[in-house]
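This section describes the prediction task in plain terms. A model, or a person checking by hand, is given the sequence of a single protein chain and must write out its three-dimensional structure as a string of tokens. No templates, partner chains or ligands are provided. The sample shown here is typical of the held-out split.
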Amino acid sequence: MGRPAQLREREALLTAAESPAVFKAGAIVAAATVAGAAAILVPRYGARADTWALAAQIALLSGAALSGGFVLRLEQRLQSRHPRLPVVVFYPLVFLAFLFGLLAVYPSAPGYLATARLLNVSLVMPPVVLIVLTVAFGSVYRAVFFHLLPRFTRVDHIKHLSSPEFADQFRIYWDAAARYGDPVTLIMMRSVPRSWSSAADIETATRELERTITPHLRRSDRCGRYARDTVWIVLARTNAALAEIPVRRLLEQIQRDQEFQQHLQKSEVVIRCGVASYQRRMQAPQDLAEAALVAVQEAARKEREVHFFR
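The expected answer:
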């Protein structure tokens, strides 16, 4: 099982990815499965097994790979609807692909997967081998599939991943502002590409930006990733008039971080900052977020370091 953060990121990626992207990633893994299975099975069993039987095993494995992304998405949706139930769909699919392939190939090649020798040891040994193969193939499949999927989707899955965290951490500030009039200011800092910057460069710059900012916040403030290119920062009990001082201080700290500045120079990325404070006309936290995003877009358009939403 993967790390909790990795699992959450994969869930967000599956939720955000479009169906064509899921199909493309699965198709590439399926093609690799066909090539790999043929390279392993045909030289080893081709002389003894029926050609159609081997083709059936390869087709079953490639079919499981081709549909694997959609099966993982179905598994995720079932788990979200029934969080207390251990819903697993993908691994049984792979197990059945190996099992039916074994039943197809074994009659024409009794040595297939050394089943005869395994049966002499114990009746449970063939299922154990199938389970091991299922886990091995399933683990490799997941790693490759989730490595490929971001390359085929335009949706920022990190934004989907960070939305619940942002909503949870911002709710207390919003309630204090809306109910009791406590001021609050939201900052959006975006990594903006200059020329040839890749998506990986921008994402790395944003991650490093969050690392640089965090040590310089007050204990009552918060920050986190909003998207691949954006970091959000909440300044508690700070209105529009008072916000300029801490914002300028944060920008100065960013400029003093030599390691971060060297990374920005190598990747041709600049940092643009948008600032918005709570106003009575705002009806929901997303209104404040949109105002800060408008401000950072304005800063990028005018090539300013920072822009304040008024």
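For orientation: The longest strand covers residues 184-193.
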